[in-house]
Write a structure and sequence with these properties.
mainly beta, seven-stranded mixed sheet, 0% helix, globular
């Protein structure tokens, strides 16, 4: 399993931007597909974006498409989530997920037992 640590969360006004980072250690990061999820208070965890091991394929939830960009730098063992045009409804704890996959595609983690998870980073968007 790979160990994941998220960072970059914080408080931002609506319309602002943040960039989240997820640093990996413990395994060959380039063997892993990655995704970002979020969980708002009182709500279930929802998938936000995913990226293949090479970065060649990216996927987005409709709610963030056109505003968020997922990317990765395998030389730094890090995956990023650039969040622009933030809205109050984007407020949540954001989690990084990674699982072994060299197929070139991405699968949304069906539950908490799928792959590795970070501890989360809080994003708060004020109106």
């Amino acid at each position: 399993q790979v160990h994941l640590v998220e960072s970059g969360g914080g408080l931002v006004q609506a319309g602002g931007s943040l960039r989240l980072s997820c640093a990996a250690s413990g395994r060959a990061f380039s063997d892993y597909a990655c995704g970002w999820f979020r969980q708002a208070p009182g709500k279930e965890r929802e998938w936000v974006a995913g990226i293949s091991w090479s970065g060649g394929m990216t996927y987005y939830a409709d709610s963030v498409k056109g505003r968020f960009t997922i990317s990765r730098d395998n030389t730094k063992d890090t995956v990023y989530l650039q969040m622009n045009s933030l809205r109050p409804e984007d407020t949540a704890v954001y989690y990084c997920n990674a699982y072994p996959d060299r197929s070139g595609s991405y699968s949304i983690a069906p539950d908490d037992s799928f792959g590795s998870w970070g501890q989360g980073t809080q994003v708060t968007v004020s109106s």
